[in-house]
Amino acid sequence: MSPRTNRRWLTIPTQSPVRVAIKDRRARSDARQGRPPDGETAAGSSGGIALFKRIVAPVVALLLAGCATGYHDITNPLVGWSGGYWEGKGPGELVKVGFAGNNLISKETVGSYLLYRCAEIAQREHKPYFALYESLPAAVVDERSSEKSVTTVTGKPTTYAYILFFDQAGPRLLNTADVLKRLEPVVKGGKTS
Amino acid sequence: MIFSQRMKGLSLMACAALLAGCAAVPVYQAAPNTPVARLNVNSMGSKWICVGAERQRLVADPTGYVDIPAGKAVTIGSSYYNYVYGGVSTSCNPRTTLVPKAGQRYFIDFEIEAERCVALIYREDPSTRTGLAPDLTLGQSAPSCGGR
């Protein structure tokens, strides 16, 4: 299947506009309009490859489209297209952690996945406690939270938080082991990487 | 096929126009012998400053900083085109205004949430774990050069 894409530009009415390019498979558009996929003429569309392009690939795509985002790395080449978790360092000692979901996952689940990922990172860094900040402004004034309220970007539940690690318990700090234990039932079963 | 070729032609023309537009935006140079602050522009996006109601590009020196005027309200913006966030491409053009203090270092970043993107500027403060401190001059009125 050709990797070429079509893009439609939408402008979302917001205080600060976010313009969105929605990528559609060129082949999907071609199929709707009765055109053969790129590089393939009507006369040359017979055979196993053509059968795959016309029947198997769309069926697989439809099956995949029915999946809510699972708990996995967004860079995962197999399932990252549906979203997942990501992280970035800074500013300072902060770590920015995000989770991007698709239209089939709830905001509550995205919030749980994000918090669980934050705890996983704290565990990876051998830190028993961490502070969760809903935004950079909250982190700068040390306004700690126990969870992150999830909103949408382009209609999909997508969120992020900043975390800071601690060796000792303190006011409004989250216990790494407790968070992992509490949210494991939510996350378990959907993890792919 | 004809439609496709026309689209290719239009796309090329649009790209050329955009590139020409980028090239036409002048690079900001702080006036000599005037007080300046330092702005960290290492975060994503193309940074710009509003000078006389006109956008000028902020280009970092090898240390990742650029001089900006101090002692008066300045509007700093950050433009993102085709930035992939959460699996979709987004573009936005946030800006903010502050009164930089001479010799102070500042950090600019942006955040996308709840269908909005905002530009954030803080004072750099190595004494804190975040490396940042709030800047109370944010939100001062100044020429906007477009954007929000």
Could you characterize what this model shows?
The complex is a heterodimer of chains A (193) and B (148). With 193 residues, chain A is an alpha+beta fold. Chain A contains 5 helices and 8 strands, in the order E-E-H-H-E-E-H-E-H-E-E-E-H. In chain A, helix 3 packs across helix 5. The longest helix of chain A is centred in the N-terminal third of the chain and has 18 residues. Chain A is elongated and about 65 Å long. Chain B has one domain. Chain B is built from 1 helix and 10 strands; from the N terminus they run αββββββββββ. The mean pLDDT of chain B is 80. Chain B is α+β, with helices and mostly antiparallel strands and 148 residues long. The radius of gyration of chain B is 17 Å and the shape is globular.
Estimated share of beta-strand residues of chain B: 35-45%
Radius of gyration of chain B: 17 Å
Shape of chain B: globular
Taken together, the total number of domains of chain B comes to 1
Could you estimate the helical fraction of the residues of chain A in percent? Answer: 25-40%
Describe the main β-sheet of chain B briefly.
5 strands, mixed
Oligomer: heterodimer
Structural class of chain B: alpha+beta
The termini of chain B sit apart by: 40 Å
Structural class of chain A: alpha+beta
Outline type of chain A: elongated
- Identify the most extensive interface between protein chains: A-B, 40 and 32 residues
Query: Low-confidence segments of chain A, ≥5 residues, pLDDT <50?
Result: 1-45
Count of all domains of chain A: 2
Relative strand content of chain A: 25-35%
